């Protein structure tokens, strides 16, 4: 479910942050929830370890595994921020409203620099740059984006021991994601999982207020709205491409257990990187087409 985490650069905790911190003080000793996931590539069907999600005391951690089952990155949600940790590089980034505001300032500066350079570009390159600017600013027909909606898929499926109901995230008339959900009350620690999801949704809405480009803000706000009401706990998340399933993440186990506090800490010796590291003027975070 790294889709949750990136959903992650777009996720936010701030408007619910104070309440989350107060909750953490009162329930820090309560048992948490550990969710094991398996990733499956489609249509090859090859299963690989996907990751583990930990929820306790108003905090959340999501581990991403490599094919050998080793943790190659993880994200922590606590104290009104997301901490995105790269275990290979031994670095981390703090993602909160303040860092997003700083990132937006840098993107604005990049945009102004690109505008100044466009006059000296070949026509094809200049047209591509103009389309990118229009997409960000949402001020031209080339920037038009289809609406994002979250609708009842109208069918049930079986995932592991669960019978779940399909909800779909659609971009225009195309299905981009499918979520097969069960009632929160039907899974161990479902109340904690639901609270974490609610806080993540509040984060999304608040962080989106920092986005200064109307075209991007519209798209991200629609995704945030769709993400905010999953109608239950997703035991199966499926990514779609051109109407066909591309890959899926399935819950293999959910257990209530006490989680060590250091699970939600940044490892000692890791260095902080600015959120804007890796930012490209052509595609935001991660380069062209980046998230």
Keywords:
alpha+beta; 6 helices; disordered N terminus; about 30% helix; outer membrane lipoprotein receptor (LolB), chain A; two-stranded antiparallel ribbon
Outline of the structure:
The protein has 291 residues and is of the alpha+beta class.
Model description:
The chain is an alpha+beta fold and 291 residues long. The chain has one domain: Lipoprotein localisation LolA/LolB/LppX (outer membrane lipoprotein receptor (LolB), chain A, Clam). It is built from six helices and 14 strands. Helix 3 packs antiparallel against helix 4 and helix 4 packs across helix 6. The longest helix is centred in the middle third of the chain and has 22 residues. The chain is globular. 35% of the residues are buried. The N terminus and C terminus are likely disordered.
Total domain units = 1
CATH superfamily: Lipoprotein localisation LolA/LolB/LppX
By DSSP, the count of extended strands is: 14
What is the CATH third-level topology name?
A: outer membrane lipoprotein receptor (LolB), chain A
How is the main sheet built? Answer: 12 strands, mixed
List the helices and strands in order: HHEEEEEEHHEEEHHEEEEE
Radius of gyration: 20 Å
What is the straight-line distance between the termini? 15 Å
Spatial shape? globular
Strand % is 35-45%
Which architecture does the CATH hierarchy give at level 2? Answer: Clam
Treating each run of at least 4 consecutive H or I residues as one helix, how many helices? 6
Structural class: alpha+beta
CATH class: Mainly Beta
The proportion of residues forming helix, as a percent range, comes to 25-40%
Contiguous uncertain segments of 5+ residues: 1-29, 281-291
């Amino acid at each position: 479910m790294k889709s949750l985490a990136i959903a992650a650069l777009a996720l936010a905790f701030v408007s619910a942050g104070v309440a989350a911190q107060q909750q953490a003080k009162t329930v820090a000793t309560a048992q948490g929830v550990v969710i094991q996931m398996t990733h499956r590539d489609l249509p090859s069907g090859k299963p690989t370890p996907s990751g583990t999600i930990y929820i306790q005391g108003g905090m959340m951690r999501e581990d991403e595994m490599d094919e050998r089952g080793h943790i190659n990155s993880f994200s922590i949600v606590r104290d009104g921020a997301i901490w995105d940790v790269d275990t290979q590089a031994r670095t981390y980034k703090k993602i909160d409203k303040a860092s997003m505001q700083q990132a937006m300032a840098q993107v604005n500066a990049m945009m102004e620099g690109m505008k100044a350079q466009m006059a000296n570009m070949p026509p094809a390159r200049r047209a591509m740059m103009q389309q990118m600017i229009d997409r960000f600013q949402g001020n031209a027909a080339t920037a038009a984006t289809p609406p994002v909606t979250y609708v009842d898929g109208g069918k049930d499926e079986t995932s592991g021991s669960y019978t779940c109901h399909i909800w779909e995230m659609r971009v225009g008339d195309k299905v981009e994601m499918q979520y097969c959900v069960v009632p929160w009350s039907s899974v161990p620690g479902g109340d904690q999982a639901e609270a974490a999801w609610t806080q993540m949704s509040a984060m999304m809405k608040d962080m989106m207020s920092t986005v200064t480009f109307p075209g991007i803000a519209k798209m991200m706000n629609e995704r945030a709205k769709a993400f905010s009401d999953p109608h239950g706990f997703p035991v199966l998340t499926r990514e779609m491409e051109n109407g066909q399933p591309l890959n899926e993440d399935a819950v293999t186990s959910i257990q209530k257990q006490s989680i060590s506090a250091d699970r939600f800490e940044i490892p000692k010796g890791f260095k902080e990187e600015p959120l804007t590291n890796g930012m490209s003027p052509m595609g935001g975070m991660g380069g062209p087409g980046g998230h």
